[in-house]
Amino acid sequence: MEVQEETVKKSKGERGIDGGERNGRREGGGEGGREDGIGGGETKGDLATFEDLLEMAGTNGRWNIIMFIMCSIEAFISPLQSLTYQFLGATPDHWCLVPQLHQANWTQHQVISLAIPHTSNTTDEHDHCDMYNYNYTEVVEMGYEAAMLNKSTLNVLYPNPVQCLARDFNYSQYQSTVVTEWDLVCERRVIYSTTQAIVMVGKLLGYISFGYLIDKWGRRKVVLLAAVFNIVSSFLIAASPTVEMYIILKGIMTAMDAGVYLALFVFVMESCAARYRAGVGAMFVIPWALGYMVAPGIAYLIRTWQLLHAVYALPTLYCIIFFWWLPESPRWLITQGRLHEALHVLTWAAKVNGRTLPTDDVILAAMTNIEKQTAIERTVEVGPEEEGWRLLKELKHFFILMLIPHLRLRTLVVFVGWFSASMVYYGVALNASNLGTDPYLYVFFGGLLEVPSYLLLWVMMVFVGRKRSLALLYFICAVCIFLVMAIMMLLPHEEGLTAVVVLSQAGKVAVTAAFQLIWAYTSELYPTRFRSLAVGQSSVCARLGSLLSPYINDILGKTSVWAPSAVFGIVSVVAAALTLTLPETRNAVLTESTKQTPKHYGTTKPQENAIIESKNQTTTTNHYSNPTFDSE
């Protein structure tokens, strides 16, 4: 079949979607090409990209608003699962458990006074992990008063304290926590840090697996599958009989939550016009901030960890709504050749938005042209020598971001940016113990300040751009954290506490905005075929960073309270410098192929055309030219 040469011309002043002026495209075989009137002035040539189809169906109508609100509400669930280990695992005052004294019904005061060493003669601060190695059978026979009178003699006979094997806790502070349930202090403290680290491991595994599956199976199918497992595992955690089971279920829960969140975020970004992406990217996580603020309030009222976790799990039931209301991404459906399903979604969107689409044949023809572009690109990337090697092609797709030359450096920089943002975000958010402040208020204000950080991000994305905004936010965060480090090194704790808390929260505002910005920025840097893969693999790097945060705070922080701030500040500076190497994407159209990424938008190399011609055995010549930026 003879294929005519196609030329897509950009012509200013053609009549647009609503009869207004806009940039249009004319399709024909030269000067004699015809113009088909579609939809009140829209030409067939105008439907050259998915963005054009989206404009026809509507970009700011009721359907778009409903989809955005429905998907973003899920973000409320995530902080209840990832930022609550300080409450589920709250650590009350504790000291060595002396079985003989406990069986003799000695009071807490009596045990601490006699059996527990004090860290200073001038304070009431007692040791948490050591006890005197007395003969406590004799001590019980002596009685408390006599033992206290002879304490000096006992110290001569048993001079060296020993590490105890179990602890007793002050249950007046908390009825039960993960720490008191399984004795996660002293030599078992690393297990406590692991209860938070597993959250990041779960997210890491979730983003690795679902970042791949979202591209293979689609956005909707991943959301539904992950939502079911998320709901079940969330409630099972509250009944965990052992700390090992608790950790395993926690990892499963957060992996599933990561899949739901990632798929919904990609769906929302693919379903909005370029001019709205800054606002959508910033506002998508407002429910996260609300969940962040609610988490400490619930924990303050409920002091039993099983009931607390069950209450935290209740919002996961919201995900049931996706079985009825969430459609598949029409952009993804087109790239998969499922054109009639994409037409159904766009028709539904247009109906809810009160818009009128052209005939089905016209829309399907436009979708076919868009799908052909991605199919040709896929042929170039895979290569004829790999046909039939399914496993090899799957592996190549998984590592494709590192295999495409002009995406390799960009991907490495993006990975470092995600790693830094996540490490610093979770490190600062969960550092209340090292700062010596009230964890309930610290976390509440941390959540409260997320809202202005998102609003600040929106303004910066619109007027400053992605690259400069991200670099500036990293730099501001670094400055604030280095000031925190200096104050903690130079001033007594009581004098510098207010300044430390204020600067820590200021740094968190900056890194919060940076963390959300890099989500939106990454989705703009990659074409549709690799968008969720890029976001998923970048999120893996983020989880590696956040995985280190609890160990930096809990273990390195015990060595020196300012050491975690030093680490977070250095990481932020490195991220700020590397971000400046990325291309700007403000107002850029979301691309469909690697040749249309912002840096290489609209370029087609001669050797790639040769491969295309050889593969398809056609004389087709493609002159595909789109502007990098659309005027709004």
TrEMBL record:
UniProt xrefs under InterPro entries: MFS_dom, MFS_sugar_transport-like, MFS_trans_sf
Q: Which residues form the signal peptide?
A: none
Q: How does it sit in the membrane?
A: Multi-pass membrane protein
| Keyword Transmembrane helix part of the UniProt annotation | yes
The protein's name is Major facilitator superfamily (MFS) profile domain-containing protein
Q: List the biased-composition ranges (Polar residues).
A: 614-632
- Any idea which GO molecular function terms this record carries? transmembrane transporter activity
Q: Which UniProt keywords apply?
A: Membrane, Transmembrane, Transmembrane helix
Residue intervals of the Major facilitator superfamily (MFS) profile domain: 139-587
Any idea where this protein resides? Membrane
Per UniProt, the ranges with Basic and acidic residues bias are: 1-37
